[in-house]
Amino acid sequence: MEDRGAERIAEFIEPLRVRPGSTVRLERDFDPRDKGGLRKREGVELLRSGVELLAEYQQRLAAQDTYGVLMCLQALDAGGKDGTIRHVMSGVNPQGVRVSSFKVPSAEELGHDYLWRYARRLPARGDIAIFNRSHYEEVLVVRVHPELLVRQRLPGLVEGAKFWKQRYREINHWERYLTDNGFRVVKIFLNLSKEEQRTRFLKRLDLPEKNWKFSAADVRERRYWDDYQHAFSEMLSATSTRWAPWYVVPADHKWYARVCTAAVLAHTLMDIDPQYPKVAKAARKELLVAKRNLEREAPEGRPADPYAARHTTADGRKRR
Ligand code: ATP
Ligand code: MG
User: Hey, whose CA ends up nearest to atom 15 of ligand 1?
Assistant: First the structure.
């Protein structure tokens, strides 16, 4: 049953995966309006079961305490990162998840190598970390606005294709290192169309309760749309690897973006397939001794083990 589910999820997300080594041209290769042939009602239902699945797997991930998962979310403004995180992670235990948002780097952050601030927010074993924007900003906003590099005070040549190639290589190596050490990197790009971005900005202006979300800077950044499409295409081509592939999620329909994101994360967790630790024989003996001691403490008239009494039938079978 579980295997069939895993297979179905793998098939569902396959068209979103950027094949390592392929050359991506976003506008040509991925349609932001795609709904995968689903209706919204079906999508919402799928998301509900996805959220349950994630909750179960997260518990196992935490119990096994061997692997960690890092999910990076990239999108243009109004791409729906916040809502996606809220919905996809709605069922998981907050103790096992940490969301980090990355904005313009601070003076302290700029005093370090560019991966430093991201490394500080990596997950521990057993945890899921979510990056709302990520180290990929270093090859996106920084590539579109290379003047930002001045503040990074880098030695040597910091321009041209060679420089960006070096950054992609460093990022790939860093993710390889993390993967080899038990930390899986899941990368999602919420792919929004220019027209849908315009609609969402206008909605923020039209509805008073959305006004706080509107930023004139976002509209200014929209002028660089084509440069961003190019930077995203280059990034997807250079950094979708066997160990950490990119998934391009159509984002014009929020409900569909959420289903896809949940499916990609579930796929990773199912692939890890974390198991609850088995208690060793010696430790089991200790548990039995503790059980007997507690049973001896039962007051007059109370069952030796109230929990077992409640949950087993007279002939010793588990009650459902
Ligand atoms: P929201 O608008 O939903 O609160 P957001 O992620 O857009 O979320 P903002 O504070 O609006 O947050 O924007 C953060 C800005 O920081 C973005 O414009 C992003 O490009 C910029 N940024 C992130 N990382 C870097 C970086 N390494 N160098 C320069 N700018 C960066
Ligand atoms: Mg913003």
Answer: 103
For 186-206, what is each residue's pLDDT tens digit?
999 999 999 999 999 999 999
Closest ligand (CA of 75): 1
Nearest to 194 by CA among 248, 252, 136: 252
What is the pLDDT confidence band of residue 87, given thresholds at 50, 70 and 90?
very high
Does this model's pTM top 0.70? My answer is yes
Q: What domains can be seen in the chain, in order of their start residue?
A: 2-272 (3.40.50.300), 281-311 (no CATH)
Sequence-separated (6 or more) residues with CB below 8 Å from residue 253: 33, 35, 40, 43
CA 104 to CA 98: how far, in whole Å? 20
**Which of 114, 141, 200 to mutate for ligand 1's pocket (most ligand atoms within 8 Å of CB)?**
141
Q: Give me the helix-helix angle, 40-64 and 81-88, nearest 10°.
A: 70
Cβ contact 69:184 at 8 Å: yes
